[in-house]
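Title: Comparing notes on inverse folding

I've been comparing how different people in this forum approach sequence design from structure. To keep things fair, I'm posting one structure and asking everyone to reply with a full sequence. Here's the target:
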């Protein structure tokens, strides 16, 4: 998501730096979409780091995490459960070219009572969404699925591990920003397919980002995209408007193949 850098995120980045010094170097191989991707963390390292980062990230919000039986929590977890089901579809994993062997995800979601329009997912799948973001999505589960699927995609694509590998390689400032935008665009692309395969309306993804653009004053002003680690909301709306029909068509074809096989 397009978020401000907070103390929570700084703690998370510090944990990344402190927790991985013993890694045996980067792992080469194919990443999402068939691109080259070097990772700094092995499966167990990534999972353990995510657990630690999650605990640290939630510390400032003690007393603000809603109980499991609260309506917003039940709703958000129901949306997440459907997305997790989609992420486990083998044909979709293969099409996305996800690295799953040797990795484990502990999908978990906390809802935090806070006005910030934000959500995050640490390596390994633990997530949080703030009530300010729930206010932004309203009662539209497709909007909420847009947010959660994007955050899930970062974990599925091992983006944090990849960023750490690039930091160790000495990537420059502007190069790092460009790479951050690429990861955000990749998470958008993966997320819209997760949405569709989970049975949500992928066409709502660009509509959600249009809402975010409107909430931020129509998207005018601010840093030029080249100086940001995130694509502009306008860019996201355009890209998702192109990708959503493809995701919807892929899900339709998948359902047709399933029906044909079950009718044999």
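Reply #1:
Here's my take.
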């Amino acid at each position: 998501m397009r978020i401000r850098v907070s103390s929570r995120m700084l703690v998370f980045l510090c944990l990344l730096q402190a927790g991985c010094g013993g890694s045996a170097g980067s792992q080469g191989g194919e990443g999402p979409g068939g691109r080259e991707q070097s990772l700094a963390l092995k499966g167990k390292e990534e999972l353990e780091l995510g657990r630690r980062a999650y605990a640290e990230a939630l510390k400032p919000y003690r007393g603000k995490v809603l109980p499991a039986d609260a309506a917003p929590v039940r709703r958000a977890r129901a949306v997440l459960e459907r997305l997790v089901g989609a992420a486990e579809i083998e044909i979709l994993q293969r099409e996305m070219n996800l690295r799953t062997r040797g990795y484990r995800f502990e999908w978990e979601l906390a809802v935090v009572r806070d006005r910030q329009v934000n959500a995050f997912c640490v390596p390994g799948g633990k997530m949080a969404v703030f009530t300010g973001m729930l206010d932004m999505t309203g009662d539209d589960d497709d909007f909420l699925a847009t947010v959660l699927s994007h955050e899930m995609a970062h974990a599925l694509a091992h983006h944090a591990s990849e960023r750490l590998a690039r930091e160790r390689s000495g990537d420059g400032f502007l190069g790092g920003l460009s790479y951050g935008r690429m990861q955000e665009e990749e998470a958008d692309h993966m997320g819209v397919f997760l949405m569709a395969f989970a049975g949500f309306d992928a066409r709502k993804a660009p509509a959600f980002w249009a809402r975010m653009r409107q909430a931020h004053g129509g998207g005018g002003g601010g840093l030029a995209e080249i100086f940001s680690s995130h694509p502009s909301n306008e860019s996201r709306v355009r890209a998702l408007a192109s990708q959503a029909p493809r995701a919807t068509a892929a899900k339709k074809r998948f359902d047709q193949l399933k029906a044909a096989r079950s009718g044999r």
